[in-house]
Specification:
Layout lengths: L2 H21 L20 E3 L4 E2 L6 H16 L3 E2 L7 E17 L6 E16 L5 E14 L9 H18 L6
Parallel strand pairs: 1-3, 1-4, 2-4
Antiparallel strand pairs: 4-5, 5-6
Helix pairs in contact: 2-3
């Protein structure tokens, strides 16, 4: 290898190393970042019981509990009472729908049914009174098979949609990408 080739390889390696350093900068606007995806100006969040405008009993308690567990498991925030928290995450379940996806050709009964839950929620900074994240009409969907031979209960889909919504609501608390 000639000195010119070695020099060119060294220049390419230096340029590659410099571009990697820029890509891993702490400023997320510069591309990739090694900084936390969670806003670091907040330390705690209050999660009061969700409201429920539907006839789906206990869904509000199940979703509230799932959100609290998801925050505790995946975020740097501490879940506290509203009097000590610097943010609050509150919401209301606005709609629960069962939608038949497919029917048995023999019996005419639903073979696959989707459970769709819609929620309005906001994560608000209690110091400023301004929303950090606010979503209306946010939905989660799960499918279950009530017909034979599977005969899955509605509660199975309810559990699945609650877990999905909790994950997605807490994921929305991350900083903008």
């Amino acid at each position: 290898m000639t000195p010119t080739h070695r020099h060119a390889i060294v220049l390419v390696m230096v340029a590659l190393g410099a571009s990697l350093l820029v890509a891993c900068s702490a400023d997320p606007r510069a591309g990739y970042s090694s900084a936390s995806a969670w806003p670091d100006q907040y330390q705690s969040v209050a999660v009061p019981m969700l409201g429920n405008r539907t006839f789906a009993r206990e869904l509000d308690a199940q979703l509230t509990e799932a959100i609290v567990k998801e925050i505790q498991a995946t975020t740097p925030y501490k879940v506290t009472g509203q009097g000590t928290a610097d943010t609050i995450l509150r919401g209301t379940i606005t709609e629960v729908k069962l939608q038949e996806i497919s029917k048995s050709l023999v019996t005419g009964l639903g073979e696959e049914v989707a459970v769709k839950v819609t929620i309005d929620y906001e994560w608000m900074d209690l110091r400023t009174g301004k929303p950090i994240v606010a979503r209306n009409g946010f939905t989660g969907t799960a499918v279950f098979i009530p017909s034979r031979p599977t005969q899955e209960p509605l509660e199975l889909a309810g559990f699945e949609v609650v877990q999905q919504l909790a994950r997605e609501i807490v994921d929305s608390m991350q900083g903008e990408w």
